């Protein structure tokens, strides 16, 4: 259940609803395909239907929700097709974002990225699987902001939604190997920060590949779409004879 929010400021209540729904979707507290109860949410956040639906529209535009005429809002699905598309598109999009982040980043964004990495490290030390997934998601959101591309950013944001949902198991390590991979991911974050700060496009491109490959193997253990005609996360024609 989402946390009760009783602020007297309507804008604050809208923002609280937005953030609560976003977190609930990313961490599977609201499972893919689940319907949202407008009446319960209106009561919980003390919002009328108009501002409530404004939040729904914003979240739908970002890929968190699906809006259906005369049937209300529901959490975006994770079907066979979306999983297939995710695995095929992820390496391309991550690589492009990392390269552009190195080109376009600002000093203030570097500081924001370092702060998000500190939060991620703290979550690894003492946080829950949910804390870790959200902190990792925020780290990558900042790289998308750095890339600053109006065509690429919506695709990247949609990708991060499913990456967070798929990765919820990844951030609850079940054995020593998985725990080591999570630690390696944190080390790669440090390398990504250094490469972006140095504006090293080539290093960023390679780190994007390395970072994707690190998480891909663990993700495949839990969600292997059937019927793919190529290894997950590889580009068409990328294999050699």
Describe the structure.
- A hairpin with a 3-residue loop joins β1 and β2.
- The protein is mainly alpha-helical.
- Residues 225-236 have low confidence and may be disordered.
- α5 (107-126) runs antiparallel to α6 (129-147).
- The protein starts with 9 loop residues before the first helix and ends in a 21-residue tail after the last helix.
- It has nine helices and two strands.
- The longest helix has 25 residues, at 80-104.
- A two-stranded antiparallel sheet has the order 1-2.
What would you say about this model in short?
The protein has 241 residues and is mainly alpha-helical.
Low-confidence stretches: 225-236
Over all CA atoms, what is the radius of gyration?
19 Å
Please count the helical segments: 9
Structural class: mainly alpha
- Provide the helix percentage: 55-70%
Residue-averaged pLDDT: 85
Task: Give the helices and strands as they follow along the chain.
Answer: HHHEEHHHHHH
Instruction: Specify the overall morphology.
Output: globular
- Strand tally: 2
Summarize this structure as a short list of keywords or feature phrases:
globular, mainly alpha, two-stranded antiparallel sheet
Question: How are the SSEs placed, and which strands pair?
Answer:
Blueprint (H helix, E strand, L loop, with lengths): L9 H17 L11 H8 L3 H14 L2 E4 L3 E4 L4 H25 L2 H20 L2 H19 L4 H15 L9 H22 L3 H20 L21
Antiparallel strand pairs: 1-2
Helix pairs in contact: 1-3, 4-6, 4-7, 4-8, 4-9, 5-6, 5-8, 6-7, 8-9
């Amino acid at each position: 259940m989402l946390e009760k929010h009783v602020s007297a400021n309507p804008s604050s209540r809208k923002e609280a609803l937005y953030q609560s729904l976003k977190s609930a979707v990313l961490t599977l507290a609201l499972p893919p395909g689940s319907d949202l109860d407008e009446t319960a949410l209106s009561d919980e956040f003390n919002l009328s239907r108009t501002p409530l639906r404004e939040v729904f529209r914003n979240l739908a535009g970002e890929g968190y929700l699906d809006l259906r005429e005369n049937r209300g809002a529901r959490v975006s699905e994770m079907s066979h097709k979306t999983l297939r598309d995710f695995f095929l598109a992820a390496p391309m999009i991550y690589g492009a974002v990392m390269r552009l982040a190195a080109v376009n980043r600002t000093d203030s964004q570097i500081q924001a990225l370092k702060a998000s990495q500190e939060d991620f490290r703290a979550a690894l030390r003492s946080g829950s699987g949910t804390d870790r997934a959200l902190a990792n998601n925020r780290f990558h959101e900042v790289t998308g902001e750095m890339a600053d591309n109006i065509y690429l950013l919506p695709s990247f944001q949609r990708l991060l939604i499913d990456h967070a949902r798929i990765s919820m198991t990844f951030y609850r390590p079940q054995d020593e190997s998985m725990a080591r991979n999570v630690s390696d991911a944190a080390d790669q974050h440090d390398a990504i920060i250094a490469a972006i700060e140095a504006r090293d496009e080539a290093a960023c491109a390679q780190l994007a590949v390395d970072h994707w490959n690190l998480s891909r193997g663990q993700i495949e253990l839990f969600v292997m779409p059937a019927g793919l005609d190529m290894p997950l996360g590889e580009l068409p024609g990328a294999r050699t004879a």
